[in-house]
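ok so heres the complex, two chains, lmk if somethin looks off
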Amino acid sequence: MIKIENITKKYGDKIAVDHLSLEIRDGEIFGFIGPNGAGKTTTIKMITGITGYDEGEITLNNIDITKHPVEAKKTFGFVPDSPDMFLRLKGIEYLNFIADIYEVPEDVRPERFKSFAEKFDMQDHLNEDLQSYSHGMRQKIILMGALIHEPKIWILDEPMTGLDPKSSYALKEMMHEHASKGNSVFFSTHVLEVAEKLCDRIGIINHGKLVYCGTMDELDKMFPNESSLEKIFLEMTSGE
Amino acid sequence: MNKVLLLTKVMLKSSSTFNNNTKAANRKKTKSSATGIIVMLLVLGLCVCVPFTIIMSTMSSLLAEYEVADSLLYVVLPVANIAIVVISIFSVVSTFFFSQDNEQLLAMPLKPLEILLSRFLISLLSSYLMVFMFIAPIFIGYGIGMHADILFYLIAIIDIIMIPVIPLALILLISVLVFQTSNFIKHKDLLTYIMTGLILIMAFGLNIVIQNGMRSIETNPDAFVEALQALRTSMGETLVKFMPNAFFALQSLVGANLGSRLIYLLLFVVLSVGVLALVILVSSPIYFRTIRGSSERGGKTKHVSEANVLASSKHRSSFKSQVITEWRLIIRSPTYFMNLVFVSFIFPVIFFISFGMGANNGEEGGIMSFIPKFQASNYTPSNALGFMLFFAGLIFFASMTMISSTAISRMGKSASFVKYIPSSTLNIITAKIFWGVACSEVTAILTMGILAALGIVPILDCLVLLIATFPVFVLINYLAIFIDAKRPKLEWLNETQAVKNNTNGVIYMFGTWAVAIIFAGIGFIFMNLNVPYSGYIVGLIFFIIGSIGVYFMVRYLKKHENTFFDRLA
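and the predicted structre for the whole thing:
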């Protein structure tokens, strides 16, 4: 469970996130959508401990990210918006490195590596340098690394970017499976169709403020005349 | 032309040496800190330039008595041309061919000429730092020594601006032709090793030439004057044939009369601009073909077997894994390996060879006669004075290792990784400085090992020095990464920029010297200590002070667990 209570983040005079409160429950897939610069990535950075905040409190499975950062960070797997990292490592070395950091036991690693590699079609590429990977392959290896320690909470910043249809489908299935086991998935996306079909609840952020949080059904009831999420989204995020 | 200037401006912004932080929130702060850094570098630069100018002025005055003062410029100008080639080859090739933005530029409606010119301007501006540091003081020193008029300085300014043009143009021409006719551009790593090897050989050669020149002055001034006179004649002939640009620049400064000086200046400018235009014209049609596909890599698929997976799935502690990964990332990048690791080892070797040559020629009986004289002096490490000198020397060598001072910058845009992994800041930082400390220690062991093997310093003294320096190495590496974490250079277009255009390395180097001076200051208190083995007492004190410093650094990192990496958000 992720609990965000009244957080505010300021960059100088500019308020990037304004008194945002949100709760991502256990067993839930939560989609976070918003226009560019609305505060999605900043919110994700605050949840993961990359950025501090000026007011409020964030807890992950009841562990405060500021007070107990190391313990809190063990509870989630994170996929950042850019997969260009550790490019001089081989795929298998990267996975082992991440497994070491998250203290994944030695005996379970081969099975997990194999299972993820099959799901994401990466069996033939684990022995290659990350710098020889395409953008999509880098995204896949970062995803595999983020999930290797079987975290309770998944935090994914635009995880579908660059993924081929098979991997995208596999990831969506994995998200469903993960949530069905009572875990949480929090992800940001610009693909409204994905949010619409995949999420139990969605949050829409605009100008740093949460303008909607709820299920798709509740949203439909709020806007009975609009036929799609796209139109609702455009209406909610258009200039005030 | 507008596009060239626009491109140059954008490229400068994205690769600026002083642009060590890019977050909007920090921009204001960064501007003021960048100004501070520029001022500091200027002050430090002046500390190097002013003494250099004074030496050149004194030498010119002395040589003027023998009417051979201009011989200095006969030597300096060709050496400057070669030095520019040696020092700039890496950055020019990286800027033109290995920049990450090449693919974006290829897709834009830009002419090769526009990209080439803007890249050339970037290389030219980068080279001025070196020109102003080393060539300007020579011209100014000569001008002061020879009581030159204002025109001399005006011509010197134009010469200084134009001097790097031809060397840089030639590097561009040669590299374009090499990449066009070979497959080298796709073997960037191999190419980096070859280039670094060439640079080292050329730098070493230059060092030997300079050493030989210096020895001639020390051993026989009259012969040196004669040699200078002969050199001036022969060099003049050589320059006309092989480096007409240097000859024209030289004559514009020391020519017989004002008219001829102005004509030579005009010739120099016309030749420089002409060569540049020719190189750009020749390179333009083939430049796009050379950079197209430069980022492609071999497409060999290496299947990983189950046995491989099992073998590589060995569990390590988080700290150990971070240390190993750090090493892999350094040694697998030739740019990092050569600039961060190899340089720190080769520096003492070059130093010892130069020292050995000097001692062999300067002392009757060669280096072996030097040893007993040294051992009878106060300069052995068992004496406080000697200990401080050796200690300062080892710290100086350690300051050449930029592993820790660029550790955060080298992570580039993925630097936020250190903020979301479940590892303490102390662990992350210590893993990152591990190889910086190790390299400093290996360099120290290598240095003291050579001295012990030659019988110059007793083994016990070497051991005391190595033990005393260890906590200080740890401390200065913590300080190095502290500098880098507080002003990281995360935006870079190639690995060379991450380390070579990173002012943190220079700040660290000067900072380390400051630390050495502080320690020397502490040591001076004990210099007149009239007890045997005063050097060991100083060593013990240094060890204790260094350890206390490390203790406080660790405490600081623990206390600032949440805020230490604030600049990486």
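quick notes: The radius of gyration of chain B is 26 Å. thats all i got rn
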